[in-house]
Design brief:
By secondary structure, the chain is mainly β. It has five domains: 289 residues, Rossmann fold; 82 residues, Immunoglobulin-like (Sandwich); 78 residues, Immunoglobulin-like, CATH 2.60.40; 148 residues, Immunoglobulin-like (Sandwich), CATH 2.60.40.1930; 82 residues, Immunoglobulin-like (Sandwich). Helices cover 13% and strands 36% of the residues. It has eight helices and 46 strands. The strands form 13 sheets. Strands 29, 32, 33, 35, 36, 38 and 39 form a seven-stranded mixed β-sheet that branches. α1 runs parallel beside α5. The longest helix is centred in the first third of the chain and has 20 residues.
Length: 728
């Protein structure tokens, strides 16, 4: 499975042809579902146009099977082999599955027809993938390796050409979990892993030579070929070579149980790897491909001295116990096993194990590493080297959210039901607060008493087995409570921004500093977070700092504030615009005197191109971030009110942080009471429902108010009045 193979003189005799198909007659002669697939299959063109003379695919084929002893060029791992070409095209999950489906169909047809149709495919080679890809992003792709294995196909895949730990950062397909997948990294001619190749103790199996390999290339020429793409076909070629070993027991197993035969070959391949210091602790086999040792091990399968198959589909029968599944052990073969908690230095040894051996004392939900050693009399069949990994019983699953919704400052959560769980735990806090509040809840629960216009963070976990096991804590997610006009649904939140290379790192405005990283899909919603209070007819400092992945760029910047709170941004609400590209922004914004008081939305735009930012239209490089801001009303003494509704202050001095208020209302209503400083900054706001009668109420003021004069504004549908109050 590559990019197309050229008809090079040194490999053309080893290219597979489907002799069950009559080329060009537009009939599916062999009934495999593919018409005229004489040379292989091209997923994109849906025909057998596979000889595209691609440099990459041609070189991969040459390593697997350049013809040997033909007095020209080079020799591949196999001198005589058949190489089937399947052109995958763009590496998407759909294309990959289509390509593997062709391979699966051909081997399955071969098995079912006893070789009369199809093809005896024993290995696939994938010298391609998606850097840092995650199995969760391609679940069907990953699961298809088990399907291929079920018919007897092992699959070899090249890891990323960067020195990263794929166990932590990901890579597709090498981090897929199938037992029928072999992941390969690259070593150089000095037997050292190259600095530009991936690694991973759990997911990368072994290394192979792939640095500056002299090989066939496009145009019927020869050239060097480098990378994990060159290392991997050495392994695929070795698997094909193993099937040429004259061992009748192997071929009997192929006919009886092709999947079992494939797993045996994988085990022998990895256990025969030559120990290599540069691969120790960062690959499961801790060594590099040793074809000679591998072929010897396969040949020994026909002898009495052979290692039994260890089933990597381990079975933890019950809590704290592990049974290792071992096939029939010859009488003169001994298996020793050692096991440890992953990352620890101490091993626990179990000698002469068999299918009835039970390993006790495993801790709940722990990662373990185990290795086996096989001896036959005095002969060492395989030493402790190749690591297998298991996770013991009792892992508590992370919560799965079915739905989450905030309505009127109440958070409603609905979770999927899961096994083992005895308690769901939610932790919540206002964003960036020092402490989380921990709450237990049912599958359907609500969290109320949330404050108005705040940005909250929450994270979830589960407790299982009566509190003896806990799930990992989920990543923190955010939601905001109602901020009036600012959080209205009418604002467009659907933009096409690419922020892979550049994004907004921080925004400072109105006394608030918002720091962020790369926002998902180029849009950061920080509604209710650090809401600044903006005075009208006043210039306020603005700072916008960008962030970059590799190199730095200069950008265009814009800032909008919805001044009339009509839930849209107009041209006259563009309060800042850079006329040229800038490295950052340090400037001021004037809040117009006629801006409508209240909480409203601010939009900050950073873009590489000076485009009009329309909802879901053009693609832009950069990022958008959205905030809530509060525009303060001008503060003064308001004497007008409904003459039928009377409000007065019992004492104009704030005593014990309280203000006494007397009301005499003809109609009941909700009053908003706001306490301002003389500079227009609001210190407190409360809403009170007042019945239509004479009554006295007490307004509690914030603690810590400085000495001075304040303005208390009281406003309702029928009432509007302001008073001066003194804090002594």
């Amino acid at each position: 499975m590559e990019d197309g193979i050229g008809k090079h003189d040194d490999i053309i005799g080893n290219l597979w042809k489907n002799h069950h198909e009559i080329p060009g007659d537009k009939i599916d002669n062999d009934g495999n579902g593919f018409v005229d697939d004489y040379n292989g299959w091209n997923i994109a063109t849906k025909n057998d146009d596979v000889h595209l003379d691609d440099r990459h695919g041609t070189s991969v084929a040459g390593i697997i099977g350049a013809q040997g002893n033909n007095e020209i060029g080079v020799s591949g791992v196999n001198w005589h082999v058949k190489i089937m070409s399947v052109v995958t095209g763009d590496i998407t999950e759909a294309n990959v599955i289509s390509a593997y489906s062709y391979v699966y169909t051909q081997r399955k047809l071969y098995n079912e027809s006893n070789g009369k149709k199809g093809a005896f495919i024993v290995a696939t080679n994938s010298s391609w993938g998606i850097d840092r890809g995650k199995p969760s992003e391609a679940p069907i792709w990953c699961s298809f390796y088990d399907s291929l294995g079920s018919v007897g196909i092992l699959n070899c895949a090249a890891t990323i050409n960067e020195s990263i730990n794929v166990d932590e950062e990901g890579d597709l397909p090498t981090t897929c979990s199938s037992n029928f997948l072999i992941a390969v990294t690259n070593i150089n001619r000095n037997d050292i892993k190259t600095s530009s190749s991936g690694f991973g103790k759990k997911n990368i199996d072994l290394g192979a030579f792939g640095d500056a390999t002299y090989n066939v290339t496009s145009g019927n020429r020869y050239a060097t070929f480098t990378g994990t793409s060159a290392a991997t076909p050495h392994v695929a070629g070795a698997i094909a070579l193993a099937y040429s070993v004259p061992c009748s027991k192997l071929m009997d197993e192929v006919r009886k149980d092709p999947a079992n035969a494939a797993l045996f070959l994988k085990q022998e391949l990895l256990s025969s790897a030559k120990s290599n210091a540069s691969l120790a602790g960062i690959t499961s086999a801790q060594g590099r491909l040793d074809i000679g040792s591998f072929i010897t091990k396969v040949n020994n399968w026909c002898n009495d001295c052979r290692a039994p198959l260890i089933d990597d589909n381990y079975n933890v029968a019950e809590e704290g116990k592990l049974r290792v599944s071992i096939s029939e052990i010859p009488n003169n073969v001994r298996i020793d096993l050692r096991i440890r908690v992953e990352g620890s230095a101490e091993w626990t040894m179990y000698e002469n194990v068999n299918t009835n051996t039970v390993i006790n004392g495993l801790q709940l939900c722990n990662d373990y590493e185990y290795q086996l050693k096989s001896t036959c009399g005095t002969s060492l069949l395989s030493d402790f080297q190749y690591s297998r990994f298991i996770t013991s019983f009792g892992c508590c699953p992370q919560p799965i959210i079915k739905s989450l919704e905030e309505i009127d400052n109440v958070l409603y959560i609905n979770l999927e039901e899961q096994t083992l769980v005895d308690m769901n735990i939610l932790e919540i806090r206002e964003k960036d607060a020092a402490k989380w509040e921990s709450l237990s809840f049912d599958l359907e629960s609500s969290i109320d008493e949330l404050e108005n216009c705040k940005l909250y963070e929450y994270r979830l976990s589960n407790s299982c087995l009566d509190g003896r096991s806990f799930s990992p804590i989920s990543n923190a997610n955010t939601f905001n409570t109602d901020c009036g006009s600012c959080t209205a649904d009418e604002y467009c939140n659907d933009f096409n921004f690419d922020n892979d290379q550049e994004w907004i790192s921080s925004v400072g405005f109105g006394g608030s500093l918002w720091e962020s990283a790369k926002d998902e899909k180029g849009l950061g919603l920080f509604l209710g977070y650090k809401v600044p209070k903006l005075e009208r007819n006043k210039e306020l400092d603005l700072e916008i700092i960008p962030g970059f992945l590799n190199q730095t760029y200069q950008e265009f910047f814009k800032v909008y504030i919805d001044l009339d709170q009509n839930k849209a941004f107009s041209a006259n609400e563009l309060l800042y615009k850079s006329e040229t590209r800038l490295p950052f922004v340090r400037d001021t914004i004037l809040i117009p005197a006629d801006a409508k008081p209240g909480i409203t939305r601010m939009r900050v735009i950073m873009s590489f191109d000076d485009n009009n930012i329309d909802c879901n239209l053009e693609e832009n490089f950069g990022e958008i971030e959205e905030y809530c801001v509060e525009i303060l009303q001008s503060v003064g003494i308001t004497e007008s009110s409904n003459p039928n509704n009377q409000v007065s202050i019992l004492n104009t001095i704030i005593t014990n942080n309280e203000i006494g208020i007397k009301t005499s209302l003809i109609e009941s209503e909700t009053l908003t009471l706001s306490l301002y400083g003389l500079d227009g900054r609001m210190f407190d706001q409360q809403k009170l429902f007042i019945n239509a009668q004479n009554q006295q109420i007490t307004l509690n003021t914030p603690t810590g108010l400085n000495t001075g004069l304040y303005i208390l504004n009281i406003q309702g549908k029928q009432t509007r009045k302001s008073f001066k109050v003194l804090k002594p």
